[in-house]
Amino acid sequence: MNETLNVLNNRMSLRRYKDKPISEEHLEQILYSTMRAPTAGNMMLYSVLVIKDKEKIKKLSSTCDNQAFIAKAPLVLIFLADMQRWTDYFHHCDTPYNSPNNADLFLSISDTMIAAQNAVIAGESMGIGSCYIGDIMENYETHKEMFNLPDKVFPIGMITLGYYPQNMKKTLRPRFNKEYIVFNEKYKRLSSEEFDDMFKHLNDNFNPNNSFGAKNIGQLMYFKKFGAPFFKEMERSVNVIMEHWNK
Ligand SMILES: Cc1cc2nc3c(=O)[nH]c(=O)nc-3n(C[C@H](O)[C@H](O)[C@H](O)COP(=O)(O)O)c2cc1C
Question: What pTM does this model have?
Answer without folding.
Answer: 0.97
